[in-house]
């Protein structure tokens, strides 16, 4: 199965690279391209094609998110421009013929003003949520320490 997933990831990466000049790339778009390459003669049963398309879309979603998610280290690598830390693409909700819920990753310079106004709000909300989670985790850890859950060092006494 790992070999299959590796090959599928390679197909997805190649499709993303082949369409890197596109203004917007979505997991649905990439999945369609990969499925058309692998089943170029369209001989698979419709249900097989549908299931495979869903799998490819999932892989594409993961790869695109890893490449362009502002919270993911890989999405911020190689930045040498004036506003460091910005991703080359950002997720935006753009209408599609499928009416799917996938984000479309849009080249930063092609984002609309509305999209540019939404993105910082989403980033701040995510950061706020992550900070609340971190604080709650720290508080729980301190409570466990105070209640003797941990011995000296990091060994658990009991769960």
Structure write-up:
This protein is mostly helical. The protein folds into 2 domains: 2-110, no CATH class; 112-159, no CATH class. Helix content is 54%, strand content 6%. It has helices at 2-18, 27-38, 46-68, 113-146; strands spanning 24-25, 89-92, 104-107. It has a 3-stranded antiparallel beta sheet. It is extended, with a radius of gyration of 21 Å. Residues 73-80 have low confidence and may be disordered.
Average pLDDT number: 85
* Strand elements, count: 3
Outline, from the CA principal axes? Answer: extended
Task: Give me the strand/helix succession.
Answer: HEHHEEH
- As a whole number of angstroms, the C-alpha radius of gyration is 21 Å
Estimated structural class: mainly alpha
Number of helices: 4
Major beta sheet, specifics? 3 strands, antiparallel
Please estimate the helix content: 40-55%
The domain tally reads 2
What is the terminal-to-terminal distance? 35 Å
């Amino acid at each position: 199965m790992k070999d299959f997933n590796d090959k599928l990831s390679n197909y997805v990466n190649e499709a993303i690279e082949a369409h890197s000049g596109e203004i917007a790339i979505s997991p649905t778009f990439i999945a369609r391209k990969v499925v058309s390459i692998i089943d170029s003669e369209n001989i698979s049963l419709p249900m097989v094609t549908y299931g495979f398309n869903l799998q490819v879309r999932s892989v594409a979603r993961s790869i695109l998110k890893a490449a362009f998610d502002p919270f993911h280290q890989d999405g911020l690598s190689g930045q040498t421009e004036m506003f460091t830390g910005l991703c080359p693409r950002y997720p935006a909700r753009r209408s599609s013929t499928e009416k799917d819920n996938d984000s479309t990753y849009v080249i930063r310079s092609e984002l609309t003003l509305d999209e540019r106004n939404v993105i910082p709000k989403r980033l701040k909300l995510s950061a706020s949520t992550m900070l609340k989670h971190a604080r709650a985790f720290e508080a729980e850890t301190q409570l466990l320490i105070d209640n003797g859950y941990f011995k000296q060092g990091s060994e658990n006494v009991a769960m």
